[in-house]
Design goal:
Blueprint: H1 6-10, H2 24-27, E1 30-35, H3 40-52, E2 58-61, H4 78-82, E3 85-87, H5 90-93, E4 99-103, E5 115-117, H6 121-130, E6 135-139, H7 148-151, E7 156-159, H8 171-183, H9 194-197, H10 213-229, H11 238-251, H12 256-274
Parallel strand pairs: 1-2, 1-6, 2-3, 4-6, 4-7, 5-7
Length: about 280
């Protein structure tokens, strides 16, 4: 027998199937980043998957097609596409994040950063959310995945367990699987409860707040200039040294205050190297 009016429907409580989803403030600190996606339909389907789990922060880096905001596959997620950020490079997209997680398959690459199996994603994000930082979950283009240069900007590598016969996943499917893992009843962030995740909005002011990607890139740039000024290695090795430096700084898990202290030290060293005749002068900055 079908209900004949809205009153009969309202008397039945809805099932709490979504009680494991994160809070608005927690989701607002997690950015989904798609790097150089080629197919607008994949972008739209990824946006739909985000909407399924109530995530709304989407960044597109250097998209292949210019008309991706009109993708018809973004069912009930059109506003999400319209409000998405569009950046030219990954470094710019994740500059404000203290934890950057790149997704990839290990079938054709040897990882240079710590590898995180998908079931371990929720505990890592739990710690990052408790510290008050922002988080980026980064997905590469459909054909080749994230480049070595892009992965150098990531703290960890997230791997979805798949069969070696077909190791890679469709872009939108990978987004959906990762976001479901964050809301999984047994292992996801939602199972931990809001009380454990914390909402330290002022954490960026704390001494122990983690360094953001912007902090690390600024430090890397000054260290790179210092190495060049000291003739540390041949110019042909500079790109390789810069790549290794980005990886090293992310492995150190520096706080913002420590990153600033190290930055000050290298700035003084660089100034001395660039002003050899002023050994006894005070550093201007």
């Amino acid at each position: 027998m079908h209900a004949t009016g809205p009153s009969s429907v309202s008397t039945r409580p809805l099932p709490l199937y979504n009680r494991f989803l994160l809070t608005d403030s927690q989701r607002d600190r997690i950015e989904i980043v798609l790097v150089s996606p080629r197919n607008p339909l994949n972008i739209g389907a990824a946006a739909r998957a985000m909407a399924n789990f109530a995530f709304s922060r989407l960044t597109i880096v250097a998209p292949f097609e210019p008309h991706w905001r009109e993708a018809r596959s973004a069912i009930h997620a059109g506003d999400l596409l319209q409000n998405a950020r569009c950046m030219q490079c990954l470094g710019e997209a994740v500059a404000g994040c203290s934890l950057v997680l790149g997704t990839a398959t290990l079938a054709r690459r040897r990882p240079e950063q710590p590898v995180l199996q998908l079931p371990g994603l929720a505990p890592i994000l739990e710690s990052a959310l408790a510290c008050g930082g922002r988080i980026a979950l980064v997905f590469g283009p459909e054909k080749r995945g994230l480049s070595r240069q892009d992965l150098a900007l990531c703290h960890k590598l997230v791997v979805i367990p798949t069969h070696p016969i077909q190791p890679s996943m469709n872009l939108a499917q990978a987004v959906a699987v990762c976001l479901y893992e964050l809301a999984a009843p047994r292992t996801g962030l939602g199972a931990l409860g809001p009380s454990r995740l914390g909402t330290r909005e002022s954490a960026s002011l704390d001494a122990g707040a983690p360094a953001t990607a912007r902090d690390l890139d600024l430090l890397a740039a000054v260290v790179d200039k210092t190495l060049a000024a000291s003739n540390y290695s041949p110019s042909a090795m500079r790109n390789a040294n810069r790549h290794d430096l980005h990886l090293l700084l992310r492995r150190l898990s520096l706080s913002r205050s420590d990153a600033r202290r190290i930055l000050g030290l290298f700035r003084r060293i660089l100034w001395r190297l660039e002003h050899p005749g002023h050994e006894n002068a005070n550093h201007p900055g």
